[in-house]
Amino acid sequence: MNLKLRAQEMKVFFDRKTEGYDDVHGALMENKIAITRALPDGIRTMLDLGAGTGLELIPLFDRFPDACVTAIDISESMLGVLKTRPFADRVVCIAGNFFEVPLGCDYDAVISSAALHHFDPDGKRALYRLIYAALKPGGVYINSDRFYESIEDQEIDLRDYAEDPNRWPHMDTPLAMEVERALLETVGFTDITFEALDGRYWLNRARKGTVSV
Predict the structure, then answer these.
(1) pTM of the model
(2) Which of 37, 86, 98, 153 has the largest CB neighbor count within 10 A?
(3) 182 three-class SS
(4) Could you tell me the residue ranges of all domains in the chain?
(5) CATH superfamily of domain region 3-208
(6) Parallel, antiparallel, or unpaired: how do β-strands 91-95 and 68-73 relate?
C-alpha cells in the first residue's frame, strides 16, 4: 500500500465531507465517549490521531479540562471546525500525514477515533512504531475503531483495495484483531485488550512497555 497515496485519498474524501461530518459521526458519540472513560486518571498531555472536527475531544475536555492535546489530521478543513470549539485554546492543530509530520513525544496518551482503519499490516506496524515512540514510558494508546474478527474478512478488503483503490469513494481496510495484537506486541506494547462497543466498533487499548523491540 502506497501510504502517501492513501493519505491523499483520505484528504480528498474528508475535505468534501467536512460540512456533514458531525451529523454522521455524532451518531457514534458513545464510541468516542468510551475513549475518555478508558483513560486513566491524571492524564495531562495527549495526541489525537485523525482528530477530524474534534468530536471525541468534547467528552475528553469535560473530564480533563486542563489537558493539552495535539491534534493531527490530513484534512485542514476538518481541523478548521475543531478550531471553533470552546476548548480550541487547549489544542495544537497540525494538518498532515501521520507518517510525515512529527508526532511529538512524552505524551501520557495517544488516542484515535474511527481514523486508523485505512492501512495494511506494514503501514500499521510503521504507525505503531511512531505511536510507541511518542508515548511516555507507561503511556497508553486507546483507539475506538473498526476491526475484523477474522483474517479472512481482512484479506477480502485488502485484496479489493489492491485491485482497485477507487472502487468506491471511501474504502475501509480494517485489520483483524489478532493481526493488530501481533503488530502492537512486535513494537513493544503490552496489556493489549479489545472491548466490543457496538456491532462494528471496538475499543483497543495498549500500554507502552519499558523496553523497545
Answers:
(1) 0.92
(2) 98
(3) helix
(4) 3-208
(5) Vaccinia Virus protein VP39 (3.40.50.150)
(6) parallel
